[in-house]
Amino acid sequence: MARTSKKISTSPLIHVRRVLPKPSIVYDTYWRFAYERQNIFFRRLKGVVSPWTSDPILKLHKFTNAYRAADRVSQFLIRSVIYNGPQKSEDIFFRILLFKIFNKIETWQFLENKFGELSLKNFKIGAFEKFLGNLKAETSIYSAAYIMPSGGKNSPFSQKHQMHLHLLKKMLDDKLPLKIERACNMEEAFKLLREYPTMGDFLAYQFITDLNYSSLTNFSEMEFVMPGPGAKDGLRKCFANFGDYTESEVIRHVTESQDSEFDRLGLKFQNLWGRPLQLIDCQNIFCETDKYSRVAHPEFKGRSDRTRIKQKFTSHGQLQKPYFPPKWGLKISPRDQVNTIRTNESEISM
User: Fold this and answer.
1) Which one of 95, 185, 187, 326 has the largest count of C-beta atoms within 10 Å of its C-beta?
2) How far apart are CA 347 and CA 350, in angstroms?
3) Distances from the Cα of 26 to the Cα of 111, 211, 281, 288, angstroms
């Protein structure tokens, strides 16, 4: 008896067009800010004499670079912390986390002056606790860039730096460097960090980005993004609504649209020697746009309802030749290096 084929009923495919985020007027400011902030970076690198911009807000206030890895502290981390010392996974992890916990160049230098080369073999937690306890009586040991949580009333430690040093030791004892090295993607590595006390979304994302500058991991910066509080404020100012998109999806959409958006506004954006803005960069630019718009667009309010930009710009002198993770393969052009020149005011505009 011949078998009869059973007819399987299938539903027709339905293609649903997602509703795109609806931009506000601050959205154009986002791209203009990124464009001019990158111009400032290249002008300073070439040795152009200050002022590096005619934009009054950028002249007066401190803003991070368009590319996170080009910032002064990130440059120190990459050049002097990650690639200066033993390259075993545990040592790389130790140095990066020790630096990033405090996120302050001067604190790292004080530790080096006291203990010599900073590596696992000379990490004596009691000695580090005592030294930093004495140091913080004289100066701030933490950066003001973001607040490191203290662990609250339930912390068994009387001082914040003690808790952080023991947290670092706990991560090392748990073989976290090996687990992160074996992670399949950036989000998985982010979640490994996120499991630890006081490691919220913001810190875990910042720390995995810093770890990824090293040879410990080799994730694409286009894999994963986690918006921080400042970026969320910037997103709300740049968009009247998010349509069908989540905050992370909006950042991805914006990042993938960068070429067309710069073209739309007639801006010839100079990227990082062939490297376009990545998710982490566009996330940071939303944070900086939040700050910039407090002055440029005071009628737009974020969740924090902040109205002032606290930090004023202070030059730290001539920029060194930048150093980026070798695995990025960036070829820095000699014409982009220091050549002290003067420029017409007409060449510097927003």
Assistant:
1) 95
2) 10
3) 43, 32, 18, 12
Q: For residues 19 and 90, what is the distance between their CA atoms, to the nearest angstrom?
A: 45
Which pair of tokens denotes residue 285? 């630019």
Q: How far apart are CA 256 and CA 297, in angstroms?
A: 25
User: In the chain, where are the structural domains located?
Assistant: 22-71+225-345, 86-211
Express each pLDDT in 104-119 by its tens digit.
Answer: 999 999 999 999 999 9
Dump pLDDT digits (tens) for 222-273: 999 999 999 999 999 999 999 999 999 999 999 999 999 999 999 999 999 9
